[in-house]
Amino acid sequence: MKTIEFWYEFASTYSYPAAMRISREAANHDVVVNWRPFLLGPIFHELGWSTSPFNLQPAKGRYMWRDLERICDHNKLPFTRPEVFPQNGLLAARVALAIEDQTQRADFSRRVFRAQFGEGGDIADRTLIEAILHDMELPTHEIIASTGDPAIKAQLRDQVSEAARVGIFGAPSFVTNDNELFWGNDRLDDALLWAAKR
Amino acid sequence: MKTIEFWYEFASTYSYPAAMRISREAANHDVVVNWRPFLLGPIFHELGWSTSPFNLQPAKGRYMWRDLERICDHNKLPFTRPEVFPQNGLLAARVALAIEDQTQRADFSRRVFRAQFGEGGDIADRTLIEAILHDMELPTHEIIASTGDPAIKAQLRDQVSEAARVGIFGAPSFVTNDNELFWGNDRLDDALLWAAKR
């Protein structure tokens, strides 16, 4: 089977529409998605940035929110601009890694994105994450507890290191089997076409 | 007639494919293009940047060149990475403004982009600009001389001010009659669809 690595950051606005449509569109191309949550913070920190470029550049930030609204409208996705941006996606990323099953990880990830950008919730709030796990009928307490394990913490650090190593500088990003990198929700179709041809 | 404002910077890599296809695609939507050259330098300078973000962020820069190569391949456009990046597009921008006729301005602009990103030339070189004007059978010496006029210099400064005023932070950008802003070559189709519906 052809596969594609889907690198996403829970705080990333454009990762939201990508996460909501990638499973369906990949299936149309007979491509399997490997969901790989990571953190952009450490990568931005290396550039000397203390926050999202959408906050550092106000004109770009204003544009991004309007653009995201248009994209959600086009894709018939709910959109509510959260009060806090960027949000702390550390807990969500660790929980996503703790869920090893890819179908469940994808489902959890979509729910987190919808809670944040569809409903304006704060994903740093543990009760929000717990409610999602509860709704999914997953072992909530066990999973939340595992996010304190050194193994899960190390796994997330390794994800960030690997993202940087393959040249990732933003999210969402897509990497094909032959190491072709595509960046941005607007490159998802190109990435899937590329992956399907290899 | 529906119109769209096409804001481009001669040093901007993604402005190249946009410039090469906008006339044909706008015609398909019965939309008229207003070619508006401007400079990104002063806008970047306001953010404290001394050069292109593609140089400030090496990983993003490496990605951009590969992405541009793929786009040119897809659009059947010649591509040669110029040795100098970003190039000084001041002369080209002033010449483009000095050419008031929109069809000729579009033709000149496409030739400048092709010389730079199709053939790897340096558009800061006056002889390159003169050769283009000569090939177009335009009054080369007269146009080059006019780029020293205070009126042309002021016109370019005004373009930059207006770009910033309408929220432009990058190139290419597209603005519709109802002031909807679209940024990037990958938003050209969306921008034309929006313009055509208004």
Outline of the structure:
Chain A is of the alpha+beta class and 198 residues long.
Compile the SSE list and pairings.
2 copies of one chain form a homodimer.
Chain A: E1 2-8, H1 15-28, E2 31-37, H2 41-46, H3 53-56, H4 58-74, H5 90-98, H6 102-118, H7 126-135, H8 140-146, H9 150-165, E3 173-176, E4 181-183, H10 188-197
Helix pairs in contact in A: 1-6, 5-9, 6-7
Order of helices and strands of chain A: EHEHHHHHHHHEEH
Which structural class do the helices and strands of chain A define?
alpha+beta
- State the helical fraction of chain A: 55-70%
Low-confidence stretches of chain A: none
Q: Could you give a short account of the major beta sheet of chain A?
A: 4 strands, mixed
Q: Determine the N-to-C terminus distance of chain A.
A: 10 Å
The global form of chain A is globular
Beta fraction of chain A: 5-15%
Number of strands of chain A: 4
What oligomeric assembly is this protein in?
homodimer
Average predicted local confidence, pLDDT of chain A: 97
- Biggest interface in this structure? A-B, 22 and 22 residues
The neighbouring-strand order within the major sheet of chain A is 2-1-3-4
Structure report:
- Two copies of one chain form a homodimer.
- With 198 residues, chain A is α+β, with helices and mostly antiparallel strands.
- Helix content of chain A is 56%, strand content 11%.
- Chain A has ten helices and four strands, in the order βαβααααααααββα.
- Chain A has a four-stranded mixed β-sheet with strand order 2-1-3-4, sandwiched between helices.
- In chain A, α1 (15-28) packs antiparallel against α6, α5 (90-98) crosses α9 (150-165) and α6 crosses α7 (126-135).
- The longest helix of chain A has 17 residues, at 58-74.
- Chain A is globular.
- The relative contact order of chain A is 0.20.
- The model of chain A has no long low-confidence stretch (mean pLDDT 97).
- The interface between A and B is medium-sized, with 22 and 22 residues.
